[in-house]
Specification:
heterodimer; A: mainly alpha; 18 helices; 0% strand; globular; B: mainly alpha
């Protein structure tokens, strides 16, 4: 509850401070302070020091898993502000507005991770989406940015419609907006839903798949990620993605987990397509930025495995995977947003010019590719083991492993460009602070891979 | 004090880090001081620990540092075990190691500062690894040390890496050791599978009820194969003579005094297992004896001063294995100790000679060095007397103990063992005679440069010479003076269980006297023969050797044999796999998959047209297909 209230409050504070404060750099400082306050609030949520205990008639629930997830999101946001603050300010005038929108997105994420009611889910997803349409188009004089924003808005509305339709179906069938299907009056437990509710659940799944850019609902992703200012692409590909994923996870690995018979196959197909299309298409991209957007699709395929498996291991793994993915992607985008040419050739010889930056990016890429000792490896491992343990189809596990192998191709292309090709990349100056925070980021990723319990999972057990 | 045992390996580790990282900035004298001081500190701590351990009633202490591996049932703590055996090895390693470090400061003085620091860094790292090996309280820590010393040995043999032959020798040592390591590793896995633990305490206490004799024989044989690699026994001994490519102090420390005795330590440590596997013991005794004889016979015809000593090391290690094989664990460890003294002394003496001769190692071109280098000459003579086993020098007591136990086991072993001892006496005095006696046979220029070595070299020689004399007095046999075998009493707790499992055979004191005196007379005879025969050797006598001499000179053609039956077939198979299987089979498969992925990528990419209408259409098609699949065929897969 604390984070929800504080994020709304801080969003408004950011909005109005833009009027009074004009100096550069203040916006970022204020935003970082805001995230720190949110983190404090999050700590309060963990230890039941809360502003109010109201849960809006049980429409929201702030309990163990969600609260820990929110703290991952907040830490990621903090790292994001630390490494990208200057870029955010450079997009428009001052950046206060954008920071305000980001805080509103956080509000949406908090709702999306703690809803107990389908309307709350809808509300959360919409609060996340609408500021994003604006952020995508924030580079007002750039045609591509405008185009991306419009595309995103059009397709986003389409998916919103689908979601509402799904909710309507479920409500029409069961007369309830609770996320857990109503128990049978005769005490049976069903493994599938009545048809009308099943249709509703599938529609809900499709719209959420759209939000996390899973195939075949991913088409907006490359265009929007490419068109949006790189710094906001980074935000969308990481924090927002994690935020919508937790909604997906909560809905299907929580509420509908018991009725997998009604959605399991569709989920398998979605996972298969997402892994296939994400990985294969990434192979042939010429632009690192576009490659990263396909990579984000491919990674979503892995994260969906956790929803499919929805056992204890999947729950732990989902946290590790999300944390590792978000941090590593922030790290890669930190470099991407500073290089003039986002094509692969724009990175040639970067290791000679900026050895430290090349090294941190390499660690992030290794984590994304799932090389041991990084959090990414552990996340992938958890996903695969969880799927196998849940009795998921074995071919899917093997297919996922093959896709992870393919992903090495395109992640390593960037590493090869940085280290083994000659060239003199053009790039914006890199401050010492940025370097420091990138190193911290890499340490976090490695720590997550080596001491997952100490860094993260023990908190889950203690909650 | 024993709780502070982690200090012992910590000092060399620190030394390694300082010298290794600062090799480009530290001045030479400082490097030498850091390297030696680390060892001195370790030695002092070891002495203090020894002082605690030697009190009667001391029982083994395990010092847990941290949890190293904790996965499922496998629990490997990073723990050290302080007991009589490990503390004895601590003293040998740090004590002899310190002397050799001091010696090295002078011997390696011509190196550039950075490679001088590199040398000391490697040497400290070696000592650190060796200490891990003997201190570990389970087989995994021992294995870490085992691999560490192997690595350092590789690095130091190839220390002068600009010489391709030296690199080849280093590689050979490494590969040979790896073969043994593999067996050792499998042995450890088997131990874990059998006993569910790799800690010494657990394994040994469960040895009898926990495993059948066959299993124990298998495990012990695998461990022994590991030992043949590290301790240069048949069939994996050929790397040790080649390892003489390294700097001479390295040969003294690693390839004579410490690393090569790791195999003996391992078997002595596992004595409980071995005593329960008599079949393995038989194998060990035979292999040890064969190695002792074979290496001694080769040493007779070698002309390189270091090669002679190398083969004599192989031969002496053979004696130690003979001792282990007949259950004379104390004797074997005793011989490790005395051998460390006199062999280090001999190698360091050889180094002093090589130093004076300006790098010359061929003993036929030396001679008469006695009057130029009195200290080296006298200490070297003491070393020769000790290794030959002359009373009352150190080698006499340890070798006598092994041989008399061999006699109690089986007189045939004893007779062959004595034969080897006679050869040892002969070639050692041949070596001494060719090097120090007679007239100088080198060039005039070399003669001009002959000089006694500086104090940093002669002082370690003197210390080791003293130890080579008195070192044996801790193990005076029962028949000479009752209750005078201090070492045996000291080590009793370590080997107590084995002595219960396989009680040592007894022989009458009168027989022992007869055997001892008889063999002593023979050995003295052979010493004199070897000395007199080569006293007036001249270069004119050198001619193409024939018959047995030629075979011995070519080391029984073992290297050629290995080359023909192992290396060449493996090369052929590797060539086949490379040219045929890889090129035609695997490459096609791998590249085919790659091409398929690229093709698919190009096609799928076209879906991304950029038009919202098409995107929405595709999404709707997707929705319809998924609906149909899920609602009508929910159990499709």
């Amino acid at each position: 509850m604390n984070v929800l209230i504080l994020s709304i409050f801080w969003g408004i504070v950011m909005m109005f401070s833009g009027i009074a404060l004009k100096k550069k750099g203040i916006a970022t400082g204020l935003a970082i302070a805001g995230v720190l306050i949110l983190l404090l609030g999050n700590l309060g949520d963990m230890s039941t020091v809360v502003i109010t205990t109201s849960t809006f008639n049980d429409m929201l629930a702030f309990r163990g898993y969600n609260v820990l997830f929110i703290s991952i999101v907040l830490v990621a946001t903090l790292m994001y502000f630390l490494v990208s603050g200057r870029e955010i300010e450079n997009v428009g005038t001052g950046g206060f507005d954008y920071y305000a929108l980001i805080f509103f997105v956080l509000t949406g994420i908090v709702i999306a991770s703690s809803f107990n009611n389908l309307l709350m889910l809808f509300l959360g997803i919409e609060i996340i989406s609408i500021p994003l349409y604006i952020l995508t188009g924030s580079d007002k004089k750039n045609l591509k940015s405008n185009e991306a924003s419009l595309k995103y808005f059009l397709m986003g509305s389409f998916s919103t419609g689908i979601m509402l339709l799904g909710i309507a179906f479920i409500y029409g069938d069961s007369g309830s907006l609770a996320i857990v299907p109503a128990p049978s009056p005769f005490g049976f437990s069903f493994t599938s839903l009545p048809t009308l509710s099943a249709v509703g659940a599938l529609l809900l799944m499709f719209s959420l798949a759209f939000k996390v850019s899973a195939a075949p609902f991913h088409f907006w992703t490359p265009d929007v990620y490419d068109g949006a200012p790189t710094v906001f692409t980074s935000f969308m590909a990481t924090i927002v993605k994690a935020g919508t994923f937790i909604a997906f996870f909560r809905m299907f690995a929580g509420g509908f987990a018991s009725v997998q018979g009604s959605w399991g196959l569709a989920m398998q197909v979605i996972i298969f397509l997402t892994l296939l299309i994400g990985n294969l298409t990434a192979v042939f991209q010429q632009s690192a930025k576009r490659m990263m957007s396909y990579s984000s699709i491919a990674q979503a395929g892995f994260m969906l495995l956790a929803i499919y498996a929805h056992n204890d291991m999947a729950k732990e793994g989902f946290l590790v995977y999300t944390a590792a993915y978000v941090l590593a992607t922030i790290g890669v985008f930190a470099l991407l947003s500073r290089v003039a040419d986002p094509g692969f050739q724009g990175f040639n010889g970067l290791a000679k010019k900026e050895p430290l930056l090349a090294a941190t990016t390499t660690i992030c890429l290794l984590s994304l590719a799932g090389i041991p000792l990084t959090g990414g490896f552990l996340g992938k491992y958890y996903m695969l083991v969880a799927t196998a343990k849940a009795g998921g189809p074995f071919w899917l596990v093997i297919f996922a492993v093959i896709c992870a192998a393919i992903s090495i191709y395109y992640y390593f292309r960037l590493i090869i460009a940085m280290y083994f090709k000659e060239g003199n990349p053009e790039m914006a100056p890199v401050s010492r602070g940025l370097k420091f925070w990138l190193v911290v980021l890499c340490v976090l990723i490695l720590a997550l891979g080596i001491f997952p319990y100490e860094v993260l999972l023990n908190n889950l057990l203690s909650l | 004090m024993s709780q502070l045992v982690y200090l012992v390996p910590m000092f060399p580790l620190i030394g390694f880090l300082i010298n290794g990282l600062g090799r480009n900035v530290l001045p030479k004298p400082l490097v030498g001081i850091i390297g030696s001081a680390a060892l001195l500190a370790s030695f002092v701590v070891s002495l203090l620990i020894f002082n605690e351990v030697r009190t009667p009633g001391f029982s083994a202490v395990t010092v847990n540092l941290f949890d190293f591996i904790h996965v499922g049932k496998l629990n490997v703590p990073f723990a050290f075990q302080v007991d009589q055996l490990s503390v004895l090895f601590l003293l040998i390693i740090t004590g002899v190691g310190f002397l050799i470090h001091v010696y090295s400061t002078s011997y390696m003085h011509d190196e550039s500062p950075s490679s001088y620091a590199r040398y000391f860094a490697y040497l400290n790292l070696f000592v650190f690894s060796m200490l891990l090996l003997v201190l570990g309280s389970n087989y995994v820590i021992m294995f870490i040390g085992w691999e560490g010393v192997g690595l350092c040995s590789y690095l130091l043999i190839g220390f002068w890496f600009k010489n391709a032959d030296y690199n080849y020798a280093a590689r050979k040592a490494f590969v040979m050791n790896r073969i043994g390591d593999l067996a050792f590793l499998i042995g450890i896995f088997w131990i874990f599978a059998q006993f569910g633990s790799v800690n010494y305490a657990d394994v040994f206490s469960q040895a009898r009820p926990g495993a059948s004799a066959h299993v124990l024989t298998g495990i012990t044989l695998l461990l022994f194969i590991g030992a043949t690699g590290k301790s240069a026994q048949i069939p994996l001994y050929t790397w040790l003579p080649d390892a003489m490519a390294g700097p001479t102090p390295v040969s003294a420390l690693i390839h004579a005094a410490t690393m090569v005795t790791a195999g003996i330590y391992m078997i002595a440590r596992s004595n409980v297992l071995y005593s329960l596997a008599p079949a393995t013991q038989g194998v060990i005794a035979v292999i040890g004896l064969c190695t002792a004889i074979l290496a001694a016979s080769i040493a007779i015809q070698q002309n390189d001063i270091k090669k002679v000593l190398a083969y004599s090391t192989v031969s002496q290690l053979g004696y130690m294995f003979l001792g282990l094989g007949v259950g004379a664990y104390t004797g074997a460890v005793f011989h490790v100790m005395t051998h460390a003294f006199f062999k280090a002394l001999l190698f360091l003496g050889a180094g002093s000679v090589i130093h004076a001769m300006g790098g010359e190692q061929d003993i036929r071109k030396m001679g008469g060095l006695r009057k130029f280098m009195p200290v080296t000459s006298i200490t070297f003579l003491i070393g020769c007397l000790a290794i030959a086993g002359i009373f009352p020098f150190a080698g006499f007591f340890s070798k006598d103990e092994i041989l008399s136990r061999a006699y109690a086991h089986n007189p045939v072993l004893y007779v062959i063992g004595i034969l080897g001892a006679l050869m040892t006496a002969f070639y050692m005095f041949r070596l001494y005679s060719l090097t120090f006696a007679g007239k100088f046979r080198g060039t005039h220029d070399q003669e001009h440069h002959l000089h006694e070595s500086p104090a940093a070299i002669t002082i370690p020689l003197i210390v080791l010479a003293v130890l080579s004399v008195v070192g044996g007095w801790v193990g005076i046999p029962e028949f000479m003076a009752p209750n005078a075998h201090v070492l045996s009493k000291f080590l009793e707790p370590v080997f107590a269980n084995s002595h219960v499992a396989a009680p040592p055979g007894e022989i009458a004191a009168s027989t022992e006297w007869a055997l001892t005196i008889g063999s002593l007379v023979l050995i003295i005879g052979f010493c004199t023969w070897g000395y007199m025969k080569f006293k007036n050797f001249t270069l004119a006598e050198v001619k193409e050797s024939t018959g047995l001499a030629k075979i011995l000179e070519n080391k029984w053609y073992v290297d050629e044999l290995y080359d023909a039956i192992i290396v060449k077939p493996i090369n052929w198979i590797a060539g086949f796999l490379n040219n045929v299987v890889e090129k035609l089979g695997i490459d096609g498969l791998v590249n085919g998959v790659g091409k398929l992925v690229q093709y698919g990528s190009r096609q799928i990419r076209l879906l991304q047209s950029g038009q919202v209408g098409i995107y929405v259409l595709l999404m709707v098609i997707g929705i319809v297909v998924l609906f149909v699949l899920q609602l009508f065929f929910p159990n499709l897969i």
